[in-house]
Amino acid sequence: MDAILLPLMGSVALVFAKMTQGEAARWAEKQFFAALVVITIVTVRTVIMCDETWLLHTATLATMIVGALVVPGYDSSLAT
To answer: What are phi and psi for residue 73, nearest 5 degrees?
Structure first.
């Protein structure tokens, strides 16, 4: 269960960051970046420790980075 919690959290944060508008979009982007930092730290730890979930965490991190760049979202700069 621990191995699937972080990828799920990252996916939900990415979806919310891309689907929200206005002031909620700023909050969702902050949550996404916080999740990205946490998943990056956990990924580095799992790779260093040669944990069996390193591939799952690395794939999640890659998906979050590519998804943030590729998936179109609403323009949060319009938030006032």
So the answer is: -135, 180
